[in-house]
Write a structure and sequence with these properties.
six-stranded mixed beta sheet; 11 strands; globular
């Protein structure tokens, strides 16, 4: 497939890699790519829609084993920031709750959001900030379990551009990679620019995805820098292709860059679906909270050993290191961090004209009801 003419297009030899990231709705959206590990081992034959799944335990659509079947779209299953989703599958926690959870993947969180809104899935694993953005558009979506209290994101610059980009104030005139336009990496990049006096119209965000497509774009000069996560960050540093400009993988990094805790990775769902399937939501939350607690008592190496082998594309040691670098971002109990929603609102309103003029009801963007009921220990 020939890419459309575009002044930001990458060199021809990487078209097949970048096209999927830059045009996700004409490539990745053609199919919902099922993760290779499914609880119960069965792929759903029929799509359950948000409105068409009745019953408090999702009994309308069950596997042959009688387990409730749920579809969850993840904005990049192999990204460390979303690791709890697949780890919960690998540890058998969904199955233990009587759930058959099918994990699907898209290149960026904005596509996970789209799958949820369109009714393709019942839940999305992505950044909490989408719930605020969607509320401003009239959609009622809420986070039911919060994986993290920091973004887990890193702004990197290529070696070639390092001399001209010393901080976000130097973004003017640059092409900066994001996973997708309208994604959380796009949001955070715009905030860092505006915070340092650069208008969003003065630089160009380029959708390059993550992993190989991000690495290729940076290496070939299609972008001078960009925002990404581990294991992509670990790969870039290991190959000496660039350097870290802003590190938001820890609560301290979030405080310095954003002025407070920034709840990011979460499981969010339609408020209507949550209200109609409370028992099923509780089971999902129980499983994920159990995983977060497990992560807090195990090493990066132990966590890496539980993940699918093909996630360690750069080798086991590098993958374990990428997990270690990102572990500080995760919560231990799934509870929304104090003042986190306010930080997210401040960040989004700094550059988003729709949100600037909208009064957001933060209490409607998340709930702690289910995490507080999750079994302790």
């Amino acid at each position: 497939m020939t890419m459309p003419s575009n002044p930001e297009a990458v060199p021809d030899d990487s078209n097949s890699l970048i096209q999927q990231a830059r045009y996700p709705r004409t490539t990745a959206r053609r199919r919902l790519r099922a993760a290779p590990f499914l609880a119960g081992g069965l792929c759903a034959a029929l799509v359950m829609t948000l409105s068409g799944c009745g019953g408090d335990t999702a009994s309308d659509d069950k596997s042959a084993s009688g387990q409730a079947k749920i579809k969850v779209m993840v904005g990049g299953l192999d990204k460390v920031i979303y690791l709890p989703a697949m780890l919960t599958q690998q540890l058998g926690h969904f199955k233990a709750e009587g759930l058959n959870v099918e994990l699907l993947t898209e290149p960026a969180g904005v596509q996970a959001e789209t799958a949820l809104i369109s009714g393709d899935v019942q839940g999305a694993v992505g950044f909490y900030d989408h719930t605020l953005d969607l509320q401003a558009k009239g959609k009622k979506i809420e986070s039911v379990v919060q994986f993290s209290h920091a973004p887990g994101e890193v702004e990197v610059v290529s070696n070639q551009a390092a001399a001209s980009i010393g901080s976000p104030k130097d973004f003017k005139g640059k092409k900066l990679g994001v996973t997708g336009l309208g994604s959380s990496t796009d949001f955070l990049t715009k905030y860092l620019a505006v915070r340092d006096g650069v208008k969003t119209s003065e630089f160009t965000p380029v959708a390059v995805g993550a992993g190989q497509t991000f690495v290729a774009a940076l290496k070939q000069g299609s972008i001078q820098g960009g925002m990404t996560t581990d294991p992509t960050v670990a790969t870039l540093l290991d190959q000496k292709l660039g350097k870290v400009l802003v590190d938001m993988r820890t609560p301290e990094g979030s405080q310095q860059a954003l002025g407070g805790p920034y709840p990011s990775s979460s499981l969010y769902m339609s408020t209507e679906w949550v209200n109609g399937h409370r028992q099923t939501v509780q089971k999902l939350v129980n499983a994920l909270v159990k995983t977060l607690r497990w992560m807090s008592t195990h090493s990066a190496e132990e966590i890496a050993a539980k993940m699918p082998a093909d996630y360690a594309k750069g080798g086991k040691d590098l993958y374990a290191q990428s997990i270690k670098s990102t572990l500080p971002m995760f919560t231990k109990d799934g509870v929304m961090p104090k003042d986190g929603p306010e930080t997210v609102e401040k960040v989004l309103k700094a550059f988003n004209p729709n949100l600037k003029s909208t009064k957001v009801d933060l209490s409607q963007t998340y709930t702690t009801e289910f995490v507080k009921k999750a079994p302790q220990g």
